[in-house]
Amino acid sequence: MEVRVDKYLWAMRIYKTRSIATDACKCGRVKMNGVELKPSRVFHVGDVFTVRKGPITYTYRILQLHNNRLGAKMVPEYLQDITPKEQLELLELARYAAQSGRDRGTGRPTKKDRREIELFFSDDYNYLLDEDYDFEEE
After folding, report:
1. What is the rounded (10 degree) CA torsion for 57, 50, 9, 76?
2. How far lies 4's CA from each of 15, 41, 103, in Å?
3. CA nearest 125: which of 138, 134, 115, 137?
4. N or C: which end of the chain has fewer CB within 10 A?
5. Are 67 and 11 in contact (CB under 8 A)?
6. Which residues pair with 58 in a beta bridge?
7. Are 78 and 64 in contact (CB under 8 A)?
8. CA atoms of 100 and 25, how far apart (whole Å)
9. Its pTM surpasses 0.90
10. Strands, DSSP E only, in the chain?
């Protein structure tokens, strides 16, 4: 049995749709032995291929072929994930980097913050910054 690359990637739930899988192949994100795969190429049992998604390059070995989309629980019977630990550590680092961003609520100013900023830069508020005002006298 032979299955097209794009169809197999979709069936094994690596990509959500077959057209996304086709685009990934055309962009060079799917490789076998360092060679970019075309969507129409066929997979065979025992083939090892890599898929680059974001910063991580996943590596898979084909155990069985199937051309229809499977349930998520059945995928390990057909596809073995042999991704190196170094790549999975990159995923963890990306997760930590995303969490270490700004604190919740410290992003865009609220309407109240905007009004206070506008008041600060208005002429009414700048009377304290007048040259005649001496800050040291207080």
Report:
1. -90
2. 14, 6, 46
3. 115
4. C
5. yes
6. 51
7. yes
8. 33
9. no
10. 3-4, 30-32, 35-36, 42-43, 48-53, 56-62, 79-81
Can you give the pLDDT of all 138 residues of the chain as single tens digits?
889 999 999 999 999 999 999 999 999 999 999 999 999 999 999 999 999 998 889 999 999 999 899 999 999 999 999 999 998 888 887 777 766 655 666 777 788 878 887 877 776 655 555 555 555 655
Tokens 């690596």 belong to: 14
- Whether the CB-CB separation of 5 and 18 falls below 8 Å is answered with no
Helices and strands, number each (H, E), in the chain: 5, 7
Domain ranges of the chain: 3-87
CATH hierarchy code of domain 3-87: 3.10.290.10
Give the separation between CA 13 and CA 51, rounded to whole angstroms.
12
Name the DSSP class of 82.
-
